[in-house]
Design a protein that fits this description.
By secondary structure, the protein is of the alpha+beta class. The chain is 64% helix and 13% strand. The relative contact order is 0.15. This is Metalloregulator ArsR/SmtB family transcription factor.
């Protein structure tokens, strides 16, 4: 990846993280796999809105999905996502 492309990719990563709803979804998924219904119930959101956010998170490789029968289960894509979130929260909450 060229340097310019790397900066673009990092910028896009933080743009995706900049939405509070997406952050809530990611933090909820740190507990493990969840389906859209579980996420929407927990966040008190419409399933269509959650699905839209999950699509953005998947497209940017922050979450992954797997089919279990008719249901799609979502989880964090890898440990790096959680590491970035935890470091960011530590930084923001640092006094």
């Amino acid at each position: 990846m060229k340097e310019h492309e790397e900066f673009q990719a990092v910028s896009q990563f933080f743009k995706v993280l900049s939405d509070p709803t997406r952050l809530k979804i990611l933090m909820f998924l740190k507990e493990g796999e969840r389906n859209v219904s579980s996420i929407s119930d927990t966040l008190a959101m419409e399933q269509s809105a959650v699905s839209h956010q999950l699509r953005l998170l998947r497209d940017n490789r922050l979450v992954k999905a797997r089919r279990d029968g008719k249901a799609m289960l979502y989880s964090l894509d890898d440990q790096h996502v959680l590491d970035v979130l935890e470091q960011t929260f530590r930084h923001v909450l640092h006094q």
